Task: structure prediction
Amino acid sequence: MVRTDRIQVKDDDQAPVSAWIIGVIAWFIPGVGHVLLGKWFRAALMGGVTWFAFFCGLAMGGHMFGLFSGQGSSMLLQVLPMVANLGTGSLYIISWLLGSGFTDDPVQAARATYEYGTHFLLIAGLMNYLTMLDAFDLAVGRKA
Result:
């Protein structure tokens, strides 16, 4: 027997504008989306992990990826790590404006912690995407 049930989506199942605003704020400043929702423990835990990983990555001499720092086809290889780094929101933008973490310094690359720092920076961005989605789901009411 084959079931042909389909899920009906109503027009009133759209997310409110406030949830989208909280999502954008949560991306821009890690942890603030949860603060706006009154979820202090989640803000400290999830936002704190993002901030901690980002600054540890910079302290270890990690490299952040930008779209125009590659040459030839290597530019295409930098798109996905750049998207991961961009997940840190304002931290990425401020670092880009200050030039911190974007220079290809051979002295930095020779450090033993260079690769670890790069991975910490990538993880910080990916963690903030999860934090942003969690704040959005809370604002919509999908989670308690």
User: Anything to note?
Assistant: The helical segments are 17-28, 32-36, 40-59, 74-77, 79-86, 90-98, 106-109, 114-140. The CA atoms of residues 23 and 133 lie 7 Å apart. The radius of gyration is 19 Å.
